[in-house]
Design a protein that fits this description.
This protein has three domains: about 210 residues, no CATH class; about 160 residues, Jelly Rolls (Sandwich), CATH 2.60.120; about 150 residues, Galactose-binding domain-like (Jelly Rolls), CATH 2.60.120.260. The protein has three helices and 41 strands. The strands form nine sheets. The chain has an eight-stranded antiparallel beta sheet with strand order 6-5-2-1-7-13-8-9, with no helix packed on it.
Amino acid sequence: MPRPAIPETFVEFHGGDRLPGRVVASFPAQQSGDEFLPAWLEVTPYAHVDPPDGRSRPRLRVATDRVRRIVWKRVTDRYRPGTLFTADGRVFTFRAVRITPGSVRILRDEGILDLPWLDVAELHLPKSPPASDKQDLFRRRCLLTAGADDVSRRIVELETDDGACLTTSLLRMRPQAFGDAGKPDNWYFLVQPDWSLQSLWISHRRIRMRRFFAVDEVPLWRIVPEFSEMPLLGSPWGYRVNANIAGGSLETPERPFGWGFGVQSGSRLTFALPPETAAFRVTAALDRSAGDGGCVAASVKFRPAGESTFQTLFAADVLVGGHAAIDTGRLPIPGEGVLELTVDPEPPAAPPGADPGNIRDIFDWLEPIVYLDATSPALDAERFRREAVPAWDGWTIASPPEAAELRLANYFDTTDNHNPAWRIVVRHGRGPLELRRAVSVPAGGGNLEIYVSRHPKVRYSKIEVFVNDEHATTFTTPEHGGGKYPGPLVLPLADYAGTSVDVKLVVVSEDDDAWLEWRAIRVVEASPEAAP
C-alpha cells in the first residue's frame, strides 16, 4: 500500500500527530457560558473528519498548547524549534511568539516583528522545557487511557490517505456503522486525540495504517531527534520519519514495517530519553530498495544523564543488502539519558566486492520502541492529577489521594448530540476529598465561584466550604444530565474584602465511585448590582 503523501498545509502537534488543514483563527482561553475553554486555534480541515450523516463542520478547534508547527505552505520536513519561515523565503529565529487573530508576533534579539498570516509559510513553536517535554511522553498516554479496563487500555495510532496522523486509545475510539453494517464503506470510527476539543469521524476506508501500543510503549518516532551526517559522496540526505530515505515504505526483503527512520550511511540520530525509560528495542537493516547492494555497520549506544561517555548496547559489524534484518532484542536502559543510533558507511568487516563508500546504503531503523517503567517514582501522581484538571491549578490536595481513592477517567459526553466528546473527570470514593488554597479577595468584595457537576449516575455529592477553617456553607453538587452545564456554586466573600483567606473544599459522596467534572474554581469581583 503506498504511503500517504505529506500535505502542503497542516498543523503538527507535540508527539508527531498531524491534521491537514489551514489555521484561520486564534482565540485566547476564555469562558463560554458555564464552560471554560483553553486557548485554541480554529482550523479549516482538509482531512475528512466530518460526521457521515452530512453535517459539515467548516472549522475544528485544536488546543494551542499542543501545537508544535503550523504550516500554511510547506517549506521543510524538519522541525526547527523557534523558527519562522516566510512565504518569500526569509527565515527568522525567535525567543517567544504570540499567535494573534490574523498575525504572528515574534520576539527576536533585534526586537518585535509582526507578520500577517498571509506572509508566513511555516511557524515552528519553541520546544517545551526539557522536563515537561519528557514527562509529556507518558502523561498524555495516561490521559488517553484514564479509566480504561485492561482490554481498552491501548494506544492507537491512525494514518489516513489524506495525510492525517491521529493518536487516540481504544477507549476513545468508537466504531459505528451508518447504513448497511455489512458494507465496509459504511464503517466509521469516532476518535478524539488529546489536542482536539472535538471528536473526529474517520472513515474505515481512509485508514492506511493502524498501530497499537501498550501505555508504557513509546515508538521512538514520537521523540524529535538531533541529527548529524557525514556524507562521503554527494550532498547530505537527511532522514525520514516512518519512510525510507527516498520517501517510500519501510521494507526489508522479508516484510514491511510499521514505523521507523530512513537514513543514509554516515548518519547519527540522538534522542533524549525520559527518566522513566526502562529498555529499548529496534530492528536494523538495509532497505529493500537497496537490493543486494550496500554495506554498513550499525550501533546502538546510550549515555546516562550526567555522564560524558556512551556505552555500546548493540553493534552489527556488517550488514549487506538482501540479508536478513537484525533484531536487537530488548536492551535494558537505566533511566534518563541520550540514545544514539549510528550507521557507519565503511565497516572494517566488509566482505570482498561490497559497495564502496555509501553507495546503495539505504538504511532503516525499523520499529524502534522505548519501554517505560510505569512504576517510576519520577512520575509525581499528585502533580499528574492537578495538571489533568486545570480547575485545580494552584490548589493543594490536602487529603491523602489514597484516602479519597482519587483517579481520572474519560467520560463520553453525549449531551450535545451533534458534537459528542470525551472529557476528563475526577473519580473518588466515599472518603473525603479536600482541596485547599489561599485566595485574595478584592477590596470591593468578591465571590467564590465553583464550576463543578456530577455524572448522572452519581446519586449525591456535596461540597463543604471552609474559610479560615470556619464552616461557611454546604453545596449540593449539581447534575450535568444534558444540554448546557449547570451554573456555578457561589459563596459571597464580602466579609473578607481586601484580605487573603484560606479556603478549604471538602467533597463527600454517597457513592463508592463518584464522577465529578471540575471546570473552574475562582474568586471574582462582586458586581455592583449584587452589592447591598
